[in-house]
From TrEMBL:
One of its GO terms (cellular component) is cytosol. This is Glyoxylate/hydroxypyruvate reductase B. It comes from Oceanobacillus bengalensis. Belongs to the D-isomer specific 2-hydroxyacid dehydrogenase family. GhrB subfamily. One of its GO terms (molecular function) is NAD binding. It comes from the Bacteria.
Length: 330
């Protein structure tokens, strides 16, 4: 009998076939409330693959046979890693394969917001371009400005590379640890959050969502930013207090915002954020290219197969699980 696994995200057919050679797949789709059949399958499953499913002690109590949870995303704020580790369950994500794609999206969003590209596109398409544009439609420069990056990890660094080499920007960053590479190769400066907010022309949030970063950017932080600042969020919506962001935009505490992520996704149609003029909104498409999504799914599938075949999954988040198992078997 092949082990049972749950696949709760549509993935390319060839990857489903690869999974089928190893496992009995139980197909489900992610929903706000998973149906009883999901929990029935979960009770027998040794693995789960997909992204965004909240994996906490409530879910794990109903998954006595689970050995591995696989995210097909780099962010894993949907996992209670401590609880998974305590229960000896492996957790994996998909770092690196999406870094450059996400950095491209973030830089595109930054340019689109500064140069008001979606608004100008609408202006032309709606037949408003009848004479030379006036200064009320001007954007602001990106090149040679100061970019402040909160969370200088893989993606933050890839954005900084584009900014430094391509746009001659000065880079400030705020991170849990120093980045010698960014300091030596990109002349980036590690500064306090306060200094970054006060001195940056563009403030980019690229730190993961955690207890520590939940609503990290709120009323006080927007007040510290320059009135001409452009705020970009590419990490997770909950890192920002959305109400405070709306207030900062409406009261001209900052100039504009470019967002790929929101407190609630999909963002509700009636969200006041969608009525604020100086905001560019994307539907969480950081890594959404055919090539990169394929690589993320492929890596997820590799993690699942290796993890359940007794090998080390390539991108294991909690290797302590394996150390503990080794110690127990000695
Ligand atoms: N918009 C999208 O589609 C998209 C795509 C990929 C990733 N993401 C988000 O981006 C995040 C980062 O991805 P990554 O691959 O660069 O991860 P990473 O782990 O390489 O980088 C995150 C960095 O943030 C730092 N950090 C953590 N807590 C911090 C804090 N309190 N203050 C300052 N810095 C802090 C870490 O030290 C690390 O250097 C993911 O966790 C995910 O939430 C979004
Ligand atoms: O974390 C990630 O990989 C992206 O947000 C896609 O979900």
């Amino acid at each position: 009998m092949k082990p049972e696994v749950i696949l709760y995200k549509p993935i390319p057919g060839d990857l489903v076939q690869r999974l089928e050679t190893h496992f009995e797949i139980r197909h489900h789709l992610l929903a706000r409330e998973m149906p009883p059949e999901f929990y029935k399958d979960l009770s027998r499953s040794e693995g789960i693959i997909g992204s965004k499913l909240k994996v906490d002690s409530h879910l794990l109590d109903q998954a006595p046979n689970l050995k591995i949870v696989v995210n097909t995303s780099v962010g894993y704020d949907n996992f209670d890693v401590e609880e998974l580790t305590k229960r000896g369950i492996m957790a994996t994500n998909t770092p690196d394969v999406l870094t450059d794609t996400v950095a491209d999206t973030i830089f595109g969003l930054l340019l689109a917001t500064a140069r008001r590209i979606p608004e100008m596109h609408h202006y032309v398409r709606s037949g408003q371009w009848n004479e030379n544009i006036g200064e009320e439609l001007y954007g602001v420069d990106v090149h040679h400005k100061v970019l402040g990056i909160i969370g200088m990890g893989r993606i933050g660094t890839a954005v900084a590379e584009r900014a430094h080499h391509g746009f001659k920007m000065e880079i400030l960053y705020h991170n849990r640890s120093n980045s010698p590479y960014a300091e030596e190769s990109l002349q980036a400066q590690n500064v306090s959050l306060e200094k970054l907010l006060q001195e940056s022309d563009f403030v980019l949030v690229m730190a993961p969502l955690s207890d520590e970063t939940y609503k990290l950017i709120g009323e006080k932080e927007f007040q510290l930013m320059k009135k001409s600042a452009i705020f970009i969020n590419g990490s997770r919506g909950e890192v920002v207090d959305e109400k405070a962001l709306i207030y900062a935009l409406k009261s001209n505490e900052i100039l504009a915002a470019g967002l790929d992520v929101y407190e609630k996704e999909p963002i509700p149609k009636e969200s006041p954020l969608l009525k604020v003029k100086n905001v560019v909104t994307l539907p969480h498409i950081g890594s959404a290219t055919s090539e990169t999504r394929y690589q993320m799914f492929r890596l997820g599938v590799d993690n699942l197969i290796k993890g359940l075949n007794g090998e080390i999954p390539p991108t294991l988040i909690n290797p302590e699980v394996l150390t503990k198992k080794r110690e127990e078997s000695n």
